[in-house]
Amino acid sequence: MSDPHMVGARTAVPHLVLGVCGLAVVLPVVWAIAAGFRTQISLLVGELWFTPNLASFNEVLFSKTSDFLLNYRNSLIVGLSSTLLCLAAATLGAWSLHRMRWPRWVPALFLAWAMAFNMIPPVALAGAWFTMARTVGLDNTFAGIILAHTALNLPMALFLMSVFVREVPLELEEAARIDGASTPVLLWKVVIPLVTPGLAATGILTFVFSWNEFAVALNLTMKQTATVPVAIAKFAQDFEIQYTQMAASAALSILPALVLLLIGQRYIVKGLTQGAIK
């Protein structure tokens, strides 16, 4: 029989490593949130103990010189719109790859190219997209930034949705065809209800990536259409860095993604592991 002390030691080490990794992730976030409740002087002198105050949050949210609420609205518009476009295109694309009569190498090559595109840094595409958007009159418009975010996140969405669409029983689709269902009815009544967990997981991840994207938004937006990451960066000015206001706005920017992740974490785990357990 195994020695209980040896078993306890073997399980303690992985838990210790995971705990250290968790602290490495959580502590910077906690520090940034706490910095939003401090004064600039308290933060710069490095005081360990301070009296919390809401001055930075009031400055960010209610100051006449702050556009943060406008930026928040802009991020919601861009994030939700690009997410819906990604989900629609990725679901149709995944169904086409796995149900249409393509040669076997076509889906594999297409998905490999999608993942390769996803590895390109967004900043490498920002300049070309800015030139194209300005040429067609989409610079500083929601349409331009939404299309850019859709293009950035579509490869990931397509890869994830292909996992779920592939697992839909082919017999159900054949039965629907026998009953006279057209392709739109088949997709709406059969495929989409079965891939709802995949839609939830993909939608959450796509929205979070769109919400946090900075380089492309910086190039394609101006004051009226700037998103939250661009607004946070503007607190670092030429002659002053408003650390506490930056921390307060960063803390506020976490809320939508945090709520979505808490609601849909089980769908995300299922979406990321579905292909590995089959």
Automatic annotation (TrEMBL):
Membrane topology according to the record: Multi-pass membrane protein
Pfam families noted in UniProt: BPD_transp_1 (PF00528)
Transmembrane found in the keyword field: yes
Main location: membrane
SUPFAM superfamilies attached to this UniProt entry: MetI-like (SSF161098)
Subcellular location: Cell membrane
InterPro entries: BP-dep_ABC_trans_perm, MetI-like, MetI-like_sf
Span of domain ABC transmembrane type-1: 72-264
TM ranges: 12-34, 76-97, 109-130, 142-165, 186-211, 243-263
Keywords: Cell membrane, Membrane, Transmembrane, Transmembrane helix, Transport
Domain of life per record: Bacteria
Similarity-based family: Belongs to the binding-protein-dependent transport system permease family.
Protein name per Swiss-Prot or TrEMBL: Carbohydrate ABC transporter permease
